[in-house]
Recover the amino acids of this structure.
């Protein structure tokens, strides 16, 4: 079962450069990367809405009311990410863009794990995690250089 989730995570990462490329093309077509990001979110919202409708998902109104204020930052961060991506992708290319994105994700993920922030299980920073992070950074440097 864990392999299935790992594959889905890999697949989710694999579609991001495609999404970025498509959003970039849309931004060029309509001459606005910010509107392209908005349209992407609107299409995504419609898609998730249809999924919720057909899969008969439910929501806890009590849970929604009691959710801490900081959880709403997720939407803001998502908007920043997609808008930044549509802007950056055509300037530095997909390989460097996503190399830097993965490096940034790993850096923050290791800190979140170590300090037990927003996670269910704490994982301390150790030499192997630092080495893995450094290898990702080395990969980004190689992508940039060649």
């Amino acid at each position: 079962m864990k392999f299935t989730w790992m594959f889905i995570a890999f697949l989710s990462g694999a579609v991001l450069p495609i999404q970025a490329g498509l959003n970039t093309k849309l931004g060029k077509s309509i001459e606005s990367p910010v509107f392209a990001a908005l349209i992407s979110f609107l299409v995504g919202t419609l898609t998730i809405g249809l999924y919720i409708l057909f899969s008969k998902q439910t929501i806890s109104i009590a849970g929604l009311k009691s959710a801490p204020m900081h959880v709403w930052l997720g939407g803001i961060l998502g908007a920043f990410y997609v808008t930044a991506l549509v802007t950056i992708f055509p300037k530095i290319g997909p390989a460097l863009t996503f190399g830097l994105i993965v490096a940034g994700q790993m850096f923050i993920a290791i800190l979140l794990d170590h300090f037990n922030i927003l996670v269910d299980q704490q994982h301390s920073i150790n030499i192997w995690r630092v080495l893995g992070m450094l290898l990702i950074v080395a990969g980004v440097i190689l992508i940039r250089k060649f």
